[in-house]
From TrEMBL:
GO terms for cellular component: Fanconi anaemia nuclear complex. Residues 16-137 form the Fanconi anemia core complex-associated protein 24 pseudonuclease domain. It comes from Austrofundulus limnaeus (Annual killifish). This is Fanconi anemia core complex-associated protein 24. The keyword DNA repair applies. The keyword Cytoplasm does not apply. GO terms for molecular function: chromatin binding. InterPro entries: DisA/LigA_HHH, FAAP24, PND, RuvA_2-like. GO terms for biological process: interstrand cross-link repair.
Length: 216
């Protein structure tokens, strides 16, 4: 992993292919740790404005955590400012939808999507968010900067945890998938019939839906 803290990286900076620009507060976070085993260069920067992440496909991400939602409505002002910010990026909001925030999610979804006109995707937590970030880049059809260095690294606990965040996939099914596919990208692109032969029809459909649902 490469770390870069350079004042020349501005609010509208687009990272090169194979890189993600992260706000400094995400250093050592579960989300960043979830990407460290991949061939991705993580650039840390203080000057992203309100955004938390910049992706090479010109997607800007603002992350709304469980604690942000529980703390009250102050995060809504940040969302408004984020929407109003002049940016060359497509703006995307990731929201932690958990047992504690589920009751607020409907109203939050309406505010973000209908009132502000932003795109929103729910995540179960930072580990799921790291998998989703990889999914976004894969779906753009670009060179895969997240491929795991060797198939043996797929069985590392962090990677196993990532795959278990796919709906319908527990530990046993995650192990089965990782034994079959040599990268997360291959799992992204797997045929439904192949998935069914490994984890069964119901779970296969959930995995396939996760990687093929509309992103923006």
């Amino acid at each position: 992993m490469t770390e870069w803290n350079n004042s020349s990286v501005a609010v509208n900076a687009v990272p090169p292919l194979g890189h993600i620009i992260c706000g400094q507060k995400w250093r050592n976070s579960a989300l960043v740790n979830g990407l460290k085993d991949g061939d991705v260069n993580i650039l840390f920067e203080d000057g992203l404005g309100l955004a938390d992440f910049h992706l090479p496909n010109k997607t800007s991400i603002l992350y709304v955590s469980e604690s942000d939602i529980i703390a009250g409505n102050s995060y809504k002002r940040k969302l408004v400012c984020y929407r109003n910010a002049c940016s060359r990026f497509q703006e995307l909001v990731l929201v932690e939808k958990t047992r504690l925030t589920k009751q607020y999610f409907s109203a939050l979804h309406k505010f973000v999507v209908f009132d502000l006109g932003l795109s929103l995707l729910p995540v179960g937590g930072q580990m799921e968010a790291s998998l989703l970030i990889a999914q976004i880049i894969y779906r753009e059809g670009r060179e895969n900067p997240f491929r795991w260095r060797t198939s043996s690294r797929l069985m590392e606990p962090r990677v196993l945890t990532l795959v278990q965040h796919i709906p319908g996939v527990g530990r046993v099914k995650a192990l089965s998938l990782l034994q079959e596919f040599s990268s997360i990208q291959q799992l992204c692109n797997a045929d439904l019939s192949k998935l069914e032969s490994i984890v069964g029809q119901a779970s296969a459909q959930q995995v396939h839906n996760f990687f093929h649902r509309p992103l923006l």
